[in-house]
Amino acid sequence: MATKIRLQRFGRKGYAYYHIVVADSRAPRDGRKIERIGSYNPNTKPATIDLNFERALYWVNCGAQPTDTVRNILSGEGVLLMKHLQGGVRKGAFDEAECQRRFDAWKANRQNALNKVKEADQAAKAADQKKRLEAESEVNKAKAKAVAEKRAAAVKALEEAAKQAAQEAAAAEAEAKGEEAPAEA
């Protein structure tokens, strides 16, 4: 039986996630499987990969052929590197301890690289958020200035209206006094 390690689609339209499965190559994509060895969610950033390392290594060593996407996933998780290193142990190029040391060093380097990418992404997000906050504060300052000018103009107009009303009241009072005075005389 020719076995393949491939993706089995799940999820809704526009939001797919996948199970990583070992299946007969003649079985339909979402059909019968031999074993589920992990999951892959490309919708998150970075993509979430949950893989049973030992079972994936077992199936690769048994001759199961991964599809292109699964090969990239297995390579990123180190399954194919471990297969390569175990081949070196079988040939006698180095021992099991050296194999594990090399794999651990590779895994540490990969983790450091992923951490740097995540930190750079977080720094970029923080810088973008700071830039947007500064732009928003500038807009708010401009709005506050416009509102202050509008209020100052309104206060000035009210003051002028109050002066004019006072003058009119004084004129009316003077006129009223002027009319009353001749009547008394």
Strands, helices and their partners?
Blueprint: E1 3-12, E2 15-24, E3 35-41, E4 48-51, H1 53-62, E5 65-66, H2 68-77, H3 79-91, H4 96-184
What does this structure look like?
- The chain is an alpha+beta fold.
- The protein has a domain of about 80 residues: S16 Ribosomal Protein, Chain: A (2-Layer Sandwich), CATH 3.30.1320.
- The chain has 4 helices and 5 strands; from the N terminus they run ββββαβααα.
- A hairpin with a 2-residue loop joins strand 1 and strand 2.
- Helix 1 packs across helix 3 and helix 3 packs antiparallel against helix 4.
Q: How much helicity do the residues have?
A: 55-70%
Total number of β-strand segments? 5
Strand content: 15-25%
Walk across the major sheet and give the strand order: 4-3-2-1-5
**Average predicted confidence as pLDDT:** 91
Task: Supply the CATH architecture of the domain at 3-78.
Answer: 2-Layer Sandwich
Low-confidence stretches: none
CATH class categorisation of the domain at 3-78: Alpha Beta
Gap between N and C termini: 132 Å
Content-based structural category? alpha+beta
Question: Describe the biggest sheet?
Answer: 5 strands, mixed
Shape: elongated
What would you give as the CATH superfamily of the domain at 3-78? Ribosomal protein S16
